[in-house]
Amino acid sequence: MISEAMTWFAKVGRVFFFLAILSFAVQHFVYAISQSPKSMGYPWGPVPYWLAYVVGLMLILIAAARMSSKYATAGTLLLAILLFGRAIVTFGPMLVSNVRNGAVWTPLSELIAMSGASLFLSGMASGSSTMRIPDRVGRWSRVVAPMLFGGPLIVFGIEHFVYARYVATLVPAWIPGHLFWTYLVGVTFIVAAAAILLRRVTWPATILLGLMFCSWVFLVHAPRIFASPRNGYEWTSGFVALAMSGASWILSSMDSTSVPFAPAATSGAHA
């Protein structure tokens, strides 16, 4: 029963994650064709319009590669590099110039977290893909990926305390106790990060984290999208929440009994 649930969440997580990736690709094309800065928000915009075409095409090809047994590993590894590179190249200098800017920490952390999930997938796919990568690289990715995903969760948690008044305004008006939920989510992020980084009770932590992100898609982002359907920022935020939900469930396949950096570490999970 538990094994079936684990498999189900991992599969749904991959569907959610790559559905969000394809949605990002569509947004890049809409952004390039319309040449409207408001058609796509952080963490993707703004970018030169010609580059939006390139990134959009790359995201589609990567999603297609993920469905191929031959190129699954290469595709997810390339996606991890693309996401991490976008985070460092675009938001790294902005963070250096103003380290207290929460508007920079958030997209930077979102991209790194999604990069971690993609890197984790590349490690899991390395054993089944016909286009193999060295076993050492596969083990390395399964070790580093949880760090890339868990680290940003700490940032999200801290932001819920530092910017509590602002975050509380994002809670739907019909839900009482806005500050209570803001602080509770902050604690949830930090606890989930600890579970992932320490490799303790990772399955329930990642499942509950994914459920929380998934609930935001419907409770927080969907109403805002319907209220402003031409606002690309709202669409991007909704897709990020969907991607983070999927990423959380992807990480639920992590073996919480393994020791980080163990040279003989292996995983029996399937991509």
What does this structure look like?
The protein has 271 residues and is mainly α. It has one domain (2-253). The protein is 74% helix and 0% strand. It has helices at residues 2-34, 49-66, 72-97, 102-125, 135-162, 164-168, 178-198, 202-227, 232-250. Helix 1 (2-34) packs antiparallel against helix 2 (49-66). The chain is globular, with a radius of gyration of 18 Å. The two termini are 20 Å apart.
Oligomer: single chain
**Tally of individual domains:** 1
Q: Describe the sheet with the most strands.
A: none
Number of strands: 0
Gist of the model:
The protein has 271 residues and is mainly α.
Question: Secondary-structure map with pairings?
Answer:
Blueprint: H1 2-34, H2 49-66, H3 72-97, H4 102-125, H5 135-162, H6 164-168, H7 178-198, H8 202-227, H9 232-250
Helix pairs in contact: 1-2, 1-9, 2-3, 3-4, 4-5, 4-9, 5-7, 7-8, 8-9
Tags for this entry?
271 residues, mainly alpha, 9 helices, globular, disordered C terminus
